[in-house]
Specification:
Elements (H helix, E strand, L loop, with lengths): L11 E6 L9 E6 H5 L3 E7 L5 H13 L1 H6 L4 E6 L3 H11 L6 E4 L4 H6 L2 E4 L5 E4 L2 E6 L2 E7 L10 H9 L1
Parallel strand pairs: 3-4, 4-5
Antiparallel strand pairs: 1-2, 1-5, 3-8, 6-7, 8-9
Length: 168
């Protein structure tokens, strides 16, 4: 499992972009985890699935609400990762009104989850291999703090906990 001090794994994530912009076409665009975090401070959190109850009611809204506080604490970007495809993550971004606040990144093949060792096997529940719920503060591609949740928990990966670590 990835630990504090480790470098993020080199994985291609996907982001659904609705407005064509600076080098991004409309539709799914690749985001290289190493290049995307280089020289930046990233507040990264991962969830088991888009549109799931805890993720939609508590996890994402906390980061959206605290986005300005994260910026004031020196965080350049907030990333939400989930083992879903880019189209689902794009729809969830619209639903959660994350535009300009949280980047909703698809780990469709669970490559990032597997490379970090932060997986959650929900095969028996019809969901397959997913990401565990966690948050991490990443500076220039290196993990500075890691808050990994226990099964079925939402206690340490919330926005307030990671914000306190970003300020610290």
């Amino acid at each position: 499992m990835i630990q504090v001090g480790d470098t993020l794994p080199a994985v291609k994530l996907m982001e659904y972009v609705e407005v064509e912009g600076n080098g991004c076409s409309i539709g799914p665009n690749a985001v290289d985890s190493v290049q995307g975090s280089a020289g930046k401070t990233i507040a990264l959190f991962a969830v088991p699935g888009a549109f799931t109850p805890t993720c939609s009611a508590k996890h994402v809204p906390g980061y959206v609400e605290k986005a300005e506080e994260f910026k004031a604490a020196g965080v350049d970007e907030i990333w939400c990762l989930s083992v879903n495809d880019a189209f689902v993550m794009g729809a969830w971004a619209r639903d959660q009104q994350t535009g300009g606040k949280v980047r909703m990144l698809a780990d469709g093949d669970a490559a990032f989850a597997q490379a970090t060792g932060l997986t959650l096997d929900l095969t028996g529940k019809g969901l397959g291999l997913r990401s565990n719920r966690y948050s991490m503060l990443v500076k220039d591609g290196k993990v500075v703090s890691l808050n990994n949740e226990g099964p079925g928990k939402f206690e340490v990966s919330d926005a307030d906990t990671l914000l306190a670590q970003a300020k610290g």
